Amino acid sequence: VVTDMTESGAQLFARLDARRCLKDVEPRLFPEHGGPDHGDVVELHGPAGTVKTELLYHLLCRCVMPAAAGGLEVEVMFVDTDYSLDMLRLVSILDRRLTGSPGSPSTEASLRSCLSRLLVVHCSSSSQLLLTLHLLETSLSSRPGLALLLIDSISAFYWLDRSEGGASIAKQEEKLSKCSHLLARLLRDYRITVFATCHAIRRNHAGPSASSEVPRPYLCRPWQRLVKHRLLCSRQQTVLSDPATSSEGERRHQVFGVHSTSSSFRSQWSSSFYVTDAGVQFA
């Protein structure tokens, strides 16, 4: 009985006292005071080429950087299901941001310190993703500084699961449903924050307005019930000149948009950004 009480106390401390809230992880993506709370899931949805992974890099850097450089100094787990994580790109962004922060000069030691707060896991199937989430509980129990889970992407195995499930919708959605139920328990017990990208899916819509229609959720209902905030990423028509360019002003950037909606707040929010060597820059 004493052992059980000791374990319960450790878990209670890990999930209630030490886990940091990430409401301020990026105010420019959410309405005022409308950022993700403890236990919230944020879905980044949009077609290919809308740099959803770059937004994850932006959030990751903000979390692992030291407070002196404007970071949150929390640990992050990055679950890479698309095998698209570019560590050279990530280190380059971190290096440039640390160099530009007067309170934290960029050195090999400072980069190592930031990267020590990052855990990376690669998954090649829904079964591996489920196993990863089971193992995540061990990490959450022993690492109270682990506050953010990034999944890129949650829909990576959608077509594979559909193929393996045959004609049965329940079989097609079984693995992701199990992942969602397990994640719901982890969110409840350890109060982490989750950001997950989701691919756009082609649908047969008739009419000229089909291309402008807001994508509808298509993943299983257990996952849809988890999502509290939805960020719709898009490519905008305008191209922005870089204010820090040379006198020729030749360098220009494609502008992307993010439209934020939340089940917790009635207000909506839109913002624009472009991508540079230093990562995401908001317009």
From TrEMBL:
Family annotation (SUPFAM superfamilies): P-loop containing nucleoside triphosphate hydrolases
Listed InterPro entries: P-loop_NTPase, Rad51_C, RecA_ATP-bd, XRCC2
A Gene Ontology cellular-component term: Rad51B-Rad51C-Rad51D-XRCC2 complex
Gene Ontology MF annotations: ATP binding; ATP-dependent DNA damage sensor activity; four-way junction DNA binding
One of the GO biological process terms: double-strand break repair via homologous recombination
Origin: domain of life: Eukaryota
Domain RecA family profile: 14-200
Record's protein name: RecA family profile 1 domain-containing protein
